Amino acid sequence: MVFGCSILPLPREQVLIYKTVDMAKLRMDVFNPPNHKSTDKSPCILFFHGGGWTGGKLDQLYPHARYLSSRGMVAIGVEYRVEATHRTTPLECVKDAKSAFRWVRKNAEQLGIDPEKVVGCGASAGAHIVAVAGSTDGLDEEGEDTTISARPDAMVLFNPVLSTGTNGYGYDRVKDYWKEISPIHNISEKTPPTVLFFGTEDQHIPVDLVKKYKKLMEEKGVRCDLHFYEGQPHGFFNYWKNDGKYYYKILLEIDKFLASLGYIEGEPTLKKITNNK
To answer: What is the pLDDT of residues 139-161, one digit of tens each?
Structure first.
């Protein structure tokens, strides 16, 4: 038995360049909902892959993107600079994430997107840069129009780096500015509603830290849904892991979370399917 979704073969609709910096042309892969038009005002979700700010695959979360596009959202995979390809630091990763949210809002009318319903979704380091965009002012690319918000309206985060402090992840790489890009140290009333997914055996982010993050969010009056999966390590949510078992479970929770915010409607359409390919 494999868990999945019949929408998976859906091709991307567009490949767009959202930013050119230091000779790098950074792209977005766009998956539009069925019968989508530029005159629509659809909710949007941006996906940022994992890879420890060093590498990673742009299409890591495309199975998730394709499903949510089938549910009426414009789903966009975002390329951002990483150390292996661009010789950059985690700070540039954050800047690119913020640029992406701004670019989508700036071009919302042409893309058929509601600029007030832009969700950020990421895995690991990708989830970290979404969380930073959701909680931290500043850290902007030079010359950008900062009157356009770079803050997601909601966040869907798969085992994000929550602390870059001395007891967190990656401190040695970010020690000159660690507090600025540490999500748990920048929670405020402006941090958007969030859903978190973690395995209890995550080797990078301890369970106690995750629980503390949720507690601090709720103390600020911010919704923070938390789902733990017993015995699962970092990266367990990927489509190709565990025959797609957790991909399926997690997508159902994402569907419910986004529906509760009014971003999608109706019952989840994801079903368990047998796939012998």
So the answer is: 999 999 999 999 999 999 999 99
CB 80, CB 26: distance < 8 Å:
yes
pLDDT per residue as tens digits for the range 45-78: 999 999 999 999 999 999 999 999 999 999 999 9
Q: Would you list the DSSP string of 139-173?
A: -PPTT--TTS--S-SEEEEES-----STTSSSHHH
Q: What is the CATH number of the domain that holds 113?
A: 3.40.50.1820
Q: What is the pTM of this model?
A: 0.93
State whether residue 259 is helix, strand or coil. helix
Range of the domain at 103: 2-273
Looking at the DSSP assignment, which residues form a beta bridge with residue 42?
A: 113
Count CA atoms closer than 13 A to 187's CA, side-chain side.
Answer: 19
115/133 Cα distance (integer angstroms): 16
Q: What are phi and psi of 151, to 5 degrees?
A: -95, 125
